[in-house]
Amino acid sequence: MPEHSAAAEEPTDDRTPPSGIPAIPQPRQRAPHGPPDRDDATRYLCAAAHLDPGYATAAIKEFLVEPTRAVPPSPGVDAGAVLTEALAARTRRKVVDLALLVLTVAFLFAAPMPLILLWLVLGVTVSIPRWSRAGESASNRRMSTGAAVGVGVLIVAVVLVAPEFERLLYELDLLDSRPSRRGSSSSADDEDVVGLVFTILLPVAMLVITFADRYTVWRLVTTRFNRTGTITATEPRQILQYAARRFRTLLTRYAAPQSYEARDDHPEPGAPAGIVVHRGYEPFVGAGRRHRPWSVAAPLLPHPNGGGTRPLSTAALYDAVVAEISDLHRATAMTPGGRLSRLTVDEEIVVSARELIDHLGDHTKPFLEDTPYPPYTKLSARRVHEIRDNPIEWARYYRCFRVETWDRDLVLSVYLHVALDDSTLYVEWTPCVLLPIREQFQRIDSESISPARPAIQAAADVLALLVAAPGKLVSTLTFLRPLRADPGVIDPDRYGSLRSLRELAADDGVHNYFQLADVDRYLKILESRLVLAVSKLLADAGYVTASFESQAAAVIQNNVHIGGSVTGNVVAGIGNLIGNGPTPGKQA
After folding, report:
1. Contacts within 8 Å (CB) and 24+ apart, 549-555
2. pLDDT tens-digit profile of 554-588?
3. Residues 438-453: pLDDT tens digits?
4. Whole domain around residue 404: which residue ranges?
5. Beta carbons of 23 and 377 less than 8 angstroms apart
6. Which of 90, 93, 79 is nearest to 39 (CA)?
7. Count of CB atoms within 10 A of residue 168's CB?
8. How many domains does the chain have?
């Protein structure tokens, strides 16, 4: 059942902020160094929307349900194209599942019980290998197995009870005469012929529908989403006319992504910074998993043999680190493929959605104009400098250093936050690893170009249809609706983002040893430049560097890391790891 029938008439909120600019962040600009990267991520995610119903549903729930939700950064991904395919795939599945359910019910009425039992047995046999695949979740397997057993028990009960029930009706004179066997009269023969025709035609119709569905996906994967295909978000898709209007309305916001910021009455020169409004525990949405973060707090002690000290500032500290790390653009021979030549440096303000709503007022105007609108995507340079020099508890300033490797399939993002006063220096270093896209989605590059594959898959789908019918019924009758809005209550989850499109499709670990080694390589190179930049700045200002260098060496080499909550365990020592920040490698 297409969602259009249940949701098309719902009121939609197509308003834009007072500036009149759609509330979508502009894609980040890459540094103009090095060779161009392939745009594999977008086509893999477009294919994932058709190959994995769970991914398409998750993408729509995160991006196309709440009109006020912030959009997280997603390096190397055309969000408009991916969301168009996700909505098209979900709508197509609903139309196909509705047609197959109608045909299945008709077949159950027309076919004899032995044939239905045979269909059920074949369906379970075909479904068992599918359930054992890695992509099938345990909950889905349990639901499908339970549904199959329930359908089988029901059919067996009907077969066993029906004759006795018929005999009871005859003995109670509720039937005029004892029903004759099939074939004993011409009317019975006619009924048998009609039933036989339906028994043959209905499976044929099921096969035609499932083949058309499988063939559509196969054609998309082998032509439009292959290495030479062209993917655009503006290409018309006829299937979208059956999608809910509110989804189509929000989808138009991604066709021409733009950014907007609050008006500043006292602007300062400088580029605005991006705003990331998050919900949940992890603040660095779009960057993947935290990987071995650390922090140090070192005292600022004047050098005993120096000629005095000069003042330090947070801005000077950030500038020194950025200048030192940006010098890696010339170190192309140090990394495979010269990836550090394309290293990007961005300013980001990370904001908690819960605290943003909790602190609604004049001081939140730079982030949110009003509750009917999504958060701003940019913050003026003046306000960025204010937060940088005087951090807010729920809005933090970070410098983000990002390296996109392996054709942008593996991304290392490092978030730097520093603070200092007259006596203490604080450095917070948070690396994040965006793991490669799942291998099952990347297999489209080796997909067979023979049309026999969708034909075989369609035949298997028809055999498994009776077993899959309960799940199809649930998915057909499930509609994606916005969060419930109680009068006078503002839900912060309507504003904060949780995961990016890229994170929704990330694998559980790297795909080979060299990817793991490269993460370690880039991270160590960046950490060495950070320590060098801070040490040079302290020495030039007349301060002792030994305390900072020794602490930095301890947390980097001895693997003392931030992890879990503030009250979690703290472990020190060589080779120790603590907390819930998983390593990028797959667990044994």
Report:
1. 551/296, 551/297, 551/298, 552/296, 552/427, 552/527, 555/294, 555/295, 555/296
2. 888 765 444 443 334 434 344 444 344 444 555 43
3. 998 988 888 777 888 8
4. 273-438+508-557
5. yes
6. 79
7. 11
8. 1
